[in-house]
Every structure is written in C-alpha cells, then in structure tokens.
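Let's do one together. I've listed all components of the complex below, 496 residues spread over two lines.
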Amino acid sequence: MMPISLTEWKVELENTWLDSLSPFQLLLLTLVVISTLMAVFLVVSVFLLMLVRNRKKRWADALQARIEDGITIWLAGDYSIQELIITFQQEIKKDPRAIKIILNVIFATSKLFRQEGQSALRQLLTGLNLHQLCYKLLKNWHWYQQAYAIQIIGQLQLEHALPLLKRKLKTKNRTLRLELITAMFALGGQSWLQEMDYTTAHLSEWEQIVLLERFRRLNIDQLPPFETWLTSTHTGWVLFGIRLCRHFNRFDQVLELGNLLTHPDKKVQMAVLDAFDYLGSPEIVPFLIKYMPQATGDRLRTTLRVLGNQGDPDLVRFLIPYTEHPDLSIQVSALSALKEMGLTKIELRQLSSNPQYIDHMFDPKRP
Amino acid sequence: MEAETTGKTHTILIAEDEALVLKMLTYRLQKEGYTVLAVSDGKQALESLRTTTPDMVITDLMMPYHSGLEVLEYVKKSLSSHIPVLVLSASGQEQTVLKAFSLGADDFALKPFSPNELVSRVRMLLRNR
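Okay, and this is what the predicted structure of the assembly comes out as:
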C-alpha cells in the first residue's frame, strides 16, 4: 500500500464519508470524540495523581521512619541533641514538608514516655524552634490546627504558652475549649483557674466526661486542685469537683462534700450522695443523718442505701421510721438498707406491714 | 552492663504493637547488652515462644490477635513460672492490674512510662529470677 500524507488523508476523509454525514450526525460524532478524549485525560490524570500521592506517601513514610529511628537512638543516649537537631534541620532544608512530620513524631513519641523522655522531647522541640510553630498555629484560621497546637503545648508542657492559651479561653468552639482546659491543667499553675471560672461559666455533662477521661491520663502531680471547685459559683464546676473527688478517692474532702448537701441544686446533692456511696467512709454518717429529714424521692432512697451500705447496726434506729413511709419505694429502700445492716428476715417482718416485700427480699431467685 | 556481669546474654521477648515503643525498648535493651526478640502482636509472640524460651517477657496488654494476658498465661503455664513477665498497659484500671497479677505477672508498668525506670525494672526482675 502506498503511504499517504496527513493532508491527503484529511481530503480523503472529507470527500468520502464525512460529507455524507448530516449536521446532527457530525455534532454527535464531535461529542463522542470530545468525551473520549476527556475520559482518557481523566484516567491519565487520576493515574498521575495516584503516582504522585504514592510517591509522597513513600517519602513521608521513609522520612517518618528515619525520624523515629533518630529519636529512638537519641533517647537511648547514643546521639547528642545537637547531632539530632542538625540532622533534622538538614531534612527540613531539603524539604520544608518535613517540619510537619517531625512535629507529628515528636508529639506521638511524647505520649508514650514520661519524665526524662518527655523533657528530652521538649528540648528537641524547642531546639528545632518548633514551639514557635505551635504558637503560630494557635492563630491558624482552622480550629483543628489550633486544637493540634494546643494538644502539643499541653503534652510537651510548653509553659511559656500559658498566657496565649488563657487568651483563647473565651472561644465559643467547645472542642477547642476542652483542649484548652486539658492543656492548661497539664501545664499546671492554677492562677488562671479563677479567671476561667468567670469566663466559662457553664461546664456541660459532656465536657465533664471528656475532661474526666483526660484527667485519668495525667500524672497525679498534674491534676488540678479540683477540691477548690467545690465552692465555685457555677454548678457545673461544683458537680465536676464532686465527681473528681469520688473518682480520685479524696477521703480528705468528706467535710467539704458533706456541706454541699445543703446546696440549693438537687443535682449537687445527688452527686454528693453518689460520692459518699463510693467513698463509704464512716465520716459521712453524721451528714446523712442530718440530711435525711429534708430529702425526698431519689435522694432519700439513695441516702438510705448509702447508710445501709455502711453496715453499722447503730444506724438501725435512724432507718426504722422510714419502713412506714407513705411512699412504698422508700419503705423498700429502708428495708433493704436494714437488711444490709444485718437484720434478719423475722426482724424485718416485724417492722414492715408488707411482709411480701420481706419475702421477696430474701427470695434466693431474686436477681 | 547486665549481660556482662552475669556472664550470659539474657534474651528478652518484647511484644508490643506500638511501633515506637517497640523500637525504643528494643534499642534501649540491646544497648544494655540484652538479646531482644521484638514482635508486634500476640500471634507472633506466641509463635516466638513456641520456638524460643526467653529469659524474660515484656508484653503489652492490648495487642492484635492475642492479648498480653494470653501471652502471659502461656508463659506461666506452658513454659515456666520462673520466667519473669512485665506487663505494659495504657489502662491502669484496677481490674486489669489485678487480672494480670492473678495470672502471674511479675511487674506492671503503666504507659506512658519512663524508659530509664523500665530498664531498671527489667534489670531487677532478671536479677531476682
């Protein structure tokens, strides 16, 4: 076959079947050609993007491994901090994206170690001047970047950042506020606490749960002086203080907790009763005896249960009047408490006008 | 170094799924003169224990495939109750600690831990074997 030139081929094409196509068919053909080209372009683009992304990931993984190894060897005492800083600075010079990876590794490592491990990592962070980056991130437009910086500041105990954190406390973003509170507690120094009490009056149940979870991970010496919150003007903080006293077994706070049984908020009273039930110290008894006449419903039932759990036979006389209480559930609570105190089935039957409750209480099939 | 003073290189199996902790402990203990077998999950730990009897085991509690408690139980029941086992855990819950000790754990270290303290504990456990 004789080879033909492009011009000849075009002429041939126009002269033969392109001429025979209607305008509509021509439009359709154009659309098909354009769509095909676009599809090819898209596939190639996706493929190239994947290639670039994989390459980037491989680079990041390799760099992360190098940084981890460097930190590991350094923490084991085989590198001086200067050597490590120079190595990391070279990585940053080669590619500024290394900063983020280095920061991530330092942060992740700091969560795994404490004491000398953590202070060494803080030295490394400041040696690389990355603490300045964290301070800068606090002003970032994205709240999650700010949260990340706050976490690093708290974790690595960058105490100089305390005033910066304090300034952010009025934020309306609840997640940021939680991060701020956690970080500030970790940083210690409670002078900011009073200020926060006024700026962030409300502490929701959800915030309390999250904070409690965070506090559990702190060293004992990093825990805030939560007993001071018992006198706060904000119920949320009082409740949280009570719950923390319960959680951290603060037997020394029984007196302060007992005084809170006169708090106007019934939630606070209930939280104190729960704390007393958990702490179970004999010192709680006078408070409960004094509290019983004014308690109703759930609070009275809980008071009876807590007294019963004390198992002290001397308390029987305080509970007996409640076995004839007009509220049947209170009667049952009083009888159960008396049973806990060691009263026999016969003794309880004599006290109650409803012997079927007593039978039920002693029923071995009762869950 | 410990290994030099005893005249024998102690072999320590470390089972830990947190890569950084594993790397750190491996390096640190190797530097102290110990031979370290490092594995990153419970399955590898049990496989390793079937072929080698280490002088000590350091195990994390929460690991893929088999938990640290299973590894601990295997060491104490199937190998030797004299092999010291140090349990690492992020959870300091009383129940977890009690469970570990009831299965025969010799020591318990809560994460985050101090590397120096951990190495001292290893030294002490091997000395008291």
